[in-house]
Protein backbone atom coordinates (compact mmCIF):
# COMPACT_ATOMS: atom_id res chain seq x y z
CA UNK A 1 0.00 0.00 0.00
CA UNK A 2 1.06 3.59 -0.50
CA UNK A 3 2.22 4.96 2.86
CA UNK A 4 3.73 8.11 4.32
CA UNK A 5 6.57 8.20 6.83
CA UNK A 6 8.39 10.90 8.78
CA UNK A 7 12.09 11.35 8.05
CA UNK A 8 14.55 13.58 9.89
CA UNK A 9 17.98 14.49 8.54
CA UNK A 10 19.84 14.92 11.82
CA UNK A 11 22.31 17.61 13.00
CA UNK A 12 25.46 15.60 12.21
CA UNK A 13 24.32 15.38 8.57
CA UNK A 14 23.01 18.93 8.04
CA UNK A 15 26.25 20.23 9.57
CA UNK A 16 28.34 18.25 7.05
CA UNK A 17 26.19 19.49 4.12
CA UNK A 18 24.82 16.01 3.34
CA UNK A 19 21.14 16.95 2.92
CA UNK A 20 21.10 16.55 -0.86
CA UNK A 21 23.02 13.27 -0.90
CA UNK A 22 20.64 11.80 1.68
CA UNK A 23 17.49 12.97 -0.14
CA UNK A 24 18.90 11.44 -3.36
CA UNK A 25 19.11 8.02 -1.72
CA UNK A 26 15.44 8.23 -0.72
CA UNK A 27 14.37 9.45 -4.17
CA UNK A 28 16.45 6.78 -5.93
CA UNK A 29 14.58 4.17 -3.86
CA UNK A 30 11.23 5.47 -5.17
CA UNK A 31 10.26 7.61 -2.18
CA UNK A 32 8.78 11.05 -2.92
CA UNK A 33 9.30 14.11 -0.72
CA UNK A 34 5.76 15.45 -0.16
CA UNK A 35 6.68 17.89 2.64
CA UNK A 36 9.99 19.36 3.76
CA UNK A 37 11.33 22.02 6.11
CA UNK A 38 14.56 22.96 7.85
CA UNK A 39 14.09 23.80 11.52
CA UNK A 40 16.19 24.21 14.67
CA UNK A 41 14.55 22.22 17.48
CA UNK A 42 14.42 23.66 21.00
CA UNK A 43 15.31 21.25 23.83
CA UNK A 44 11.59 21.09 24.75
CA UNK A 45 10.59 20.20 21.17
CA UNK A 46 13.31 17.54 20.83
CA UNK A 47 12.35 16.12 24.23
CA UNK A 48 8.67 15.94 23.29
CA UNK A 49 9.41 14.28 19.95
CA UNK A 50 11.46 11.53 21.65
CA UNK A 51 9.19 11.26 24.76
CA UNK A 52 8.90 7.48 24.30
CA UNK A 53 12.66 7.17 25.00
CA UNK A 54 12.53 9.23 28.22
CA UNK A 55 13.65 6.32 30.43
CA UNK A 56 16.61 5.33 28.20
CA UNK A 57 20.12 6.12 29.42
CA UNK A 58 20.90 8.04 26.21
CA UNK A 59 17.79 10.29 26.33
CA UNK A 60 19.58 13.41 27.60
CA UNK A 61 22.35 13.05 25.05
CA UNK A 62 19.80 12.40 22.26
CA UNK A 63 17.75 15.52 23.10
CA UNK A 64 20.85 17.71 23.35
CA UNK A 65 22.18 16.41 20.03
CA UNK A 66 18.87 16.88 18.18
CA UNK A 67 18.79 20.53 19.24
CA UNK A 68 22.46 21.22 18.54
CA UNK A 69 22.15 22.22 14.86
CA UNK A 70 19.31 22.50 12.33
CA UNK A 71 17.48 19.39 11.11
CA UNK A 72 15.48 18.78 7.93
CA UNK A 73 12.11 17.14 8.60
CA UNK A 74 10.35 15.53 5.65
CA UNK A 75 7.35 13.38 4.82
CA UNK A 76 8.24 10.63 2.34
CA UNK A 77 5.53 8.87 0.35
CA UNK A 78 5.59 5.64 -1.60
CA UNK A 79 4.73 1.95 -1.76
CA UNK A 80 5.63 0.47 1.67
CA UNK A 81 7.28 3.79 2.55
CA UNK A 82 7.85 2.95 6.24
CA UNK A 83 9.83 -0.25 5.59
CA UNK A 84 11.53 1.14 2.48
CA UNK A 85 12.74 4.21 4.34
CA UNK A 86 14.21 1.98 7.08
CA UNK A 87 15.93 -0.18 4.46
CA UNK A 88 17.56 2.86 2.85
CA UNK A 89 18.64 4.21 6.28
CA UNK A 90 20.26 0.93 7.41
CA UNK A 91 20.76 -0.27 10.99
CA UNK A 92 20.79 2.24 13.89
CA UNK A 93 24.46 1.42 14.55
CA UNK A 94 26.49 2.30 11.43
CA UNK A 95 28.88 -0.56 12.23
CA UNK A 96 25.94 -2.96 11.67
CA UNK A 97 24.50 -1.18 8.59
CA UNK A 98 24.53 -2.78 5.13
CA UNK A 99 26.68 -1.40 2.30
CA UNK A 100 25.09 1.46 0.39
CA UNK A 101 22.75 2.51 3.21
CA UNK A 102 22.71 6.09 4.49
CA UNK A 103 24.05 5.12 7.91
CA UNK A 104 26.83 2.96 6.44
CA UNK A 105 27.92 5.77 4.15
CA UNK A 106 27.43 8.80 6.43
CA UNK A 107 26.66 8.03 10.11
CA UNK A 108 29.30 8.71 12.76
CA UNK A 109 27.95 6.60 15.65
CA UNK A 110 24.76 5.09 17.11
CA UNK A 111 23.77 8.53 18.39
CA UNK A 112 25.04 10.71 15.53
CA UNK A 113 23.47 8.46 12.93
CA UNK A 114 22.41 11.03 10.30
CA UNK A 115 18.72 10.09 9.92
CA UNK A 116 15.56 9.15 11.79
CA UNK A 117 12.60 7.29 10.27
CA UNK A 118 9.24 6.26 11.74
CA UNK A 119 9.15 2.62 12.85
CA UNK A 120 5.41 1.80 12.42
CA UNK A 121 2.22 3.20 10.87
CA UNK A 122 1.19 4.46 14.33
CA UNK A 123 4.45 6.33 14.92
CA UNK A 124 4.40 7.67 11.34
CA UNK A 125 0.95 9.21 11.95
CA UNK A 126 2.03 10.70 15.29
CA UNK A 127 5.38 11.99 14.00
CA UNK A 128 3.96 13.53 10.81
CA UNK A 129 1.29 15.35 12.86
CA UNK A 130 4.02 16.53 15.30
CA UNK A 131 5.75 18.56 12.54
CA UNK A 132 3.23 19.19 9.75
CA UNK A 133 -0.35 20.34 9.23
CA UNK A 134 -2.45 18.71 6.53
CA UNK A 135 -2.05 21.77 4.29
CA UNK A 136 1.73 21.28 4.22
CA UNK A 137 1.51 17.76 2.73
CA UNK A 138 1.53 18.05 -1.04
CA UNK A 139 1.33 14.67 -2.74
P1 LIG B 1 16.21 7.28 16.06
O1 LIG B 1 15.64 6.42 14.98
O2 LIG B 1 16.20 8.73 15.83
O3 LIG B 1 15.42 6.97 17.42
C1 LIG B 1 16.03 6.98 18.68
C2 LIG B 1 17.46 7.35 18.62
O4 LIG B 1 18.22 7.13 19.78
C3 LIG B 1 18.16 6.50 17.59
O5 LIG B 1 17.73 6.86 16.30
C4 LIG B 1 19.61 6.76 17.89
O6 LIG B 1 20.16 7.86 17.20
C5 LIG B 1 19.57 7.06 19.37
N1 LIG B 1 20.26 6.00 20.06
C6 LIG B 1 19.94 4.70 20.07
N2 LIG B 1 20.84 4.02 20.81
C7 LIG B 1 21.73 4.92 21.27
C8 LIG B 1 22.88 4.84 22.09
N3 LIG B 1 23.30 3.67 22.59
N4 LIG B 1 23.55 5.97 22.35
C9 LIG B 1 23.11 7.16 21.87
N5 LIG B 1 22.03 7.29 21.08
C10 LIG B 1 21.36 6.19 20.79
TrEMBL record:
Belongs to the NDK family. It comes from the Bacteria. PROSITE patterns: NDPK, NDPK_LIKE. ATP binds at residues 10, 58, 86, 92, 103, 113. Major role in the synthesis of nucleoside triphosphates other than ATP. The ATP gamma phosphate is transferred to the NDP beta phosphate via a ping-pong mechanism, using a phosphorylated active-site intermediate. One of its GO terms (cellular component) is cytoplasm. Homotetramer. One of its GO terms (molecular function) is nucleoside diphosphate kinase activity. Transmembrane segments: none annotated. GO terms for biological process: CTP biosynthetic process; GTP biosynthetic process; UTP biosynthetic process. It catalyses: a 2'-deoxyribonucleoside 5'-diphosphate + ATP = a 2'-deoxyribonucleoside 5'-triphosphate + ADP; a ribonucleoside 5'-diphosphate + ATP = a ribonucleoside 5'-triphosphate + ADP. This is Nucleoside diphosphate kinase. InterPro entries: NDK-like_dom, NDK-like_dom_sf, Nucleoside_diP_kinase, Nucleoside_diP_kinase_AS. CDD domains: NDPk_I. It is found in: Cytoplasm. Its cofactor is Mg(2+). It holds the Pfam family NDK. Residues 2-139 form the Nucleoside diphosphate kinase-like domain. Its EC number is 2.7.4.6. NCBIfam families: PRK00668.1. Keywords: ATP-binding, Cytoplasm, Kinase, Magnesium, Metal-binding, Nucleotide metabolism, Nucleotide-binding, Phosphoprotein, Transferase.
